[in-house]
Structures are given as C-alpha cells and as structure tokens.
Amino acid sequence: MARALIGVIGGSGLYDIQGLTEVEEVQVDTPFGNTSDPIVCGKLQGIPVAFLARHGRGHRLIPSQVPYRANIHALRQLGVRYILSLSAVGSLQEEVRPLDMVIPDQFIDMTRKRESTFFGDGAVAHVSMADPVCATVAESLARAFDATQEGELVQLHQGGSYICIEGPQFSTRAESHWYRSMGASVVGMTNMPEAKLAREAQIAYATLAMATDYDCWHPREEAVTAEAAIANLQKNAQRAQQIAAKAIQFLGTEQPKSPAHTALDSALVTPVEAMPEEKQVVIKPLLAPTEPVLEEMEH
Ligand SMILES: CSC[C@H]1O[C@H](OP(=O)(O)O)[C@H](O)[C@@H]1O
Ligand SMILES: Nc1ncnc2[nH]cnc12
Asked: Alpha-carbon distance 206 to 186, whole Å?
C-alpha cells in the first residue's frame, strides 16, 4: 500500500493538491467504511503526501456526513504523522477580515450528531485535548505563510478558537453573538471531531483556516451565504496551495516530534490484549509505530 508522511485534508473549494508526482489513488479499507473520497497519494518535492477531499470531489457530503473516523483511520494506516487541515471559516472578530487566514490553537466542539472517538465497545482511552493543535505543525503553516507572501493584504492571525457547529445551516444571529461572547475567533462545521480523532490516532494536526465572511453578527455586513463564502474561498485557493506545499516541505525535511505522536501513552486505560478482538482491529493501527516510513524516506 502507498505510504505517506503528511496528510492534507482539503475542505470547501480545495478538492485537489497541485504538483503531486507519482500519483496513485487508493481506497483504504477501514473498520468504518469508505473515506470521503479515494485518497490521492503522491510525492511533493520527494515527500510522500496523502490528499483527501473532506467533502469528496464534487462536494457531496454535508459536514455531519463526512466519515471522520474512516478518514483519520485511513490516513493513519497510510503512515501519516502530520495532518494539514484546510478549511473555510466565518470570522467572529472584526480584525479577522474576510480573505484573512487564521491558524487556530483551540477548538470548541458544538457538534451533536457525530461519532467522535475510536474507543468504546471494550476499549477505553482518554486522550488530552488541552492543546488540540500541534504547535509545531501550526508553526510550519505560519512559516509557510510568511515564505509565500507577495505583498498582498491578506493577514495571518496566529492562535484563536475555532468553534465547530453541526451545520449544515449557518448560525442564527443570536448564536453568532453567543459564539463571539465566548471569545471564539472563527466558526466552521468540520474540524471537530476531526481534530479529536487525529489526536486519538496520534497524528499531529493543525488547521489553516480561511475567513470567507463575517458570519451574521456584523452590523454592516451581509449575513453569510454559501455562494459568497465559496467565492471568497476561491480567491484564496491558490495561496492555500502554496502555503500547504511549503509547510509540507518544512515538515517533510524537519520531521519534528510532536506530543501528539505519543498521545496514547498516557491515555490508554484498557490493555490491548484485554480488548475484544474486533476492537483490536480498530485500535492496533493507531498504536503502530510510524518510524518505518521515515526510514524508507532516508534511503
Ligand atoms: C461552503 S461554506 C461552509 C462549509 O465550508 C467549511 O467546510 P471546510 O471546513 O471543509 O472547508 C464549513 O465548515 C462548512 O462545511
Ligand atoms: N459563517 C460560517 N459558519 C460556518 N461555517 C463556515 N464556513 C465558512 N463560513 C462559515
């Protein structure tokens, strides 16, 4: 099976990754069925990458229907140690203007209808979500933003909370004001439980969030529509590709250690041998060492 070091999950408006060579599409078998779309594996500047369109190519899946567990399990099976998530978001703060980019360092999970763990059914673990974003992956995105800047007005905001709603409807005005009162920076519909599952899979995760609108709280701006959000996202799509490529280069050459890589060391309560056999099939791949991928790359 193709192996990858870095996974890129492309959100709204980002259905492929440019510049991949040695491309191979794979349908990974998972205990949770199919991924959102076949995973596109290939190399970017010699670094093995796996790209997954979160909503499928053609944007067929609403946020509640994205098979988050299948997606993360499949990426882990491919050997992925770092995930770059690319996402459209609404801005909840005046200074985060539409077209600006944000690298959140926190998430608030307001989703209600999603399977959000690999555990249960005879296997118990409690991973820490105190710092849900890998600081090193976030840093690689920030460095990539700086390295690809061409004097444009797009600003990067480092840090801030991404509040994840169930969707697919956008928020009511009352909700939007409420999220602002919580101090959240941006609102989206997909990064939870994705980030939780990445942590359970011991994958370092960070998001490049692209502000497309002011949601519906702003006194002088129109309430968001999907049409307007996607139009603004498309203005940033090329830049997002450049940032992702550069971050992949940094991560691929530096291969930093992340606390996420050992998240289960202090979290696993049930010994693997005590788990029911069908559960071991789910959990063992999350515990498997990823080092062989790195060794292969060095030769
Ligand atoms: C079309 S705007 C709303 C849509 O875009 C975001 O998705 P993603 O994070 O995959 O870019 C947002 O969460 C909604 O699903
Ligand atoms: N205002 C908004 N709310 C939720 N998800 C979004 N994605 C882009 N804009 C959004």
From this structure: 15
Centre of ligand 1 to C-alpha 185, Å, is 16
Answer yes or no: is the C-beta of 61 below 6 A from any ligand 1 atom.
no
Residue 223, CA distances (Å) to 70, 94, 212, 251 in order? 34, 14, 11, 38
Closest ligand, as measured to the CA of 216: 2
Q: Give the tokens for residue 55.
A: 């909503």
Burial of 230 from C-beta contacts in 10 A (0-12 / 13-18 / 19+): middle
Considering only CA atoms, which of 68, 91, 90 is closest in space to residue 200? 68
- Tell me which residue has tokens 């991404």: 162
Task: Give the tens place of pLDDT for each residue, 79-95.
Answer: 999 999 999 999 999 99
Could you tell me which of 130, 133, 3, 113 has the C-alpha nearest to residue 66?
113
Cβ distance 205 to 269 under 8 Å? Answer: no
Is 190 one of the annotated binding-site residues? yes
Asked whether residue 55 is marked as a ligand-binding residue, the answer is yes
- Whether this model's ipTM surpasses 0.90 comes out as yes
Q: Give the C-alpha separation, 3 to 123, whole Å.
A: 27
Regarding the beta carbon of 89 and ligand 2, being less than 6 Å apart is answered: yes
The ligand minimizing its distance to the Cα of 172 is 2
Centre of ligand 2 to C-alpha 109, Å, is: 14
Res. 296: pLDDT tops 90: no
Report the distance separating Cα 287 and Cα 273, nearest Å: 13
The pTM assigned to this predicted structure is: 0.96
In order, the DSSP letters of 144-188 are: HHHHT--S-S--EEE--EEEE---SSPPPHHHHHHHHHTT--EEE
